[in-house]
Design goal:
alpha/beta, 8-stranded mixed beta sheet, 7 helices, 36% helix
């Protein structure tokens, strides 16, 4: 090697060594780091790890004991596209947690303790394609407009949660949705749920474990699959009247009859008074004419 090329080679080796040392220094404790990826799976972490490289694209925090995701620390990872937080203890309100990771494409929050999903939970994730929130038994509510800003969402899994109801507009307004997991939930199949069941049977979306998408309540429909439930609810909700419906119709009819009777009675009294007044006026005119 020529004398002039030797310093150049030494400089290159120095820079590579510094880069590798920097990568090791920036890697969070108990985690493994590769190019643009930080993996902290199964490390019994109690809190969000510190010193995550700012250029991280893929962050895996699965199988830990993390109960809180700090929005500020997450916002430093502006290039993050993949976040796996399954099998943790996340249960606190997640509203505005992901405000600084707008490039996120994949988010796994399954096997946690989530209780609700509001508009503010995922509204800043405009590029989100895959969202997994299955196996959250405490998840009992998803707001009607919870996914209004997630128009790129293609894969959504809400299986094995505490959900009893899901508004049809929450799902049908997602133009790119292709996969929807709904199995083993506590669906309450009443007349309010009929629109959602009808949408399910008519849509082209793939429902994995479709045989496990069944009613939990009422008791008469428990374990029935959605196509069979749809036919029965159509019969019950669109044709049959319940006891309270008959009571309402009877009360309405009685009120209309009573109001009509009273109106006719008042009209008759007014007519009689008018006739009496007219006849007295005519009698006075006749008496004045005679005199």
């Amino acid at each position: 090697m020529s004398p002039s090329g030797r310093p150049r080679a030494l400089s290159l080796m120095f820079l590579l060594g510094m880069g590798m040392a920097s990568e090791r220094i920036n890697c969070p404790r108990s985690c493994s780091c590769q190019y643009l990826e930080v993996n902290c799976t199964g490390q019994q972490l109690q809190e969000f790890p510190e010193a995550i490289p700012l250029d991280t694209r893929q962050l895996i925090l699965a199988a830990n004991n993390i109960s809180y995701l700090p929005a500020v620390e997450l916002s430093f990872l502006a290039d993050l596209v993949y976040l796996d937080c399954k099998k943790n203890l996340l249960g606190r309100d997640l509203d505005f947690t992901f405000i600084g990771v707008a490039k996120l494409v994949y988010l796994d929050l399954s096997f946690n303790n989530l209780t609700q999903v509001t508009f503010s939970t995922f509204s800043h994730l405009l590029s989100l394609v895959v969202l997994k929130i299955s196996d959250n038994p405490s998840l009992v509510a998803i707001e009607k407009d919870a996914f209004a800003n997630n128009t790129w969402l293609s894969h959504l899994d809400v299986s094995r949660t505490g959900l009893t109801f899901l508004d049809t507009s929450t799902i049908q307004d997602l133009p790119n949705l292709r996969f929807l997991g709904l199995s083993n939930n506590l669906w309450h199949c009443n007349c309010s749920f009929l629109d959602f069941i009808t949408w399910m049977t008519e849509s082209n979306i793939h429902f994995p474990d479709a045989d496990d998408v069944t009613c939990y309540t009422p008791e008469s429909l428990r374990a029935l699959k959605m196509p069979a439930v749809e036919a029965q609810l159509h019969s019950n909700c669109l044709i049959q009247l319940y006891k309270q419906d008959y009571i309402f119709l009877c009360l309405a009819g009685f009120c209309i009859f009573f109001a009509g009777t009273m109106a006719a009675w008042l009209a008759g009294i007014c007519a009689v008074i008018y006739e009496v007044h007219i006849s007295k006026g005519e009698e006075r005119e006749e008496e004045e004419t005679v005199t």
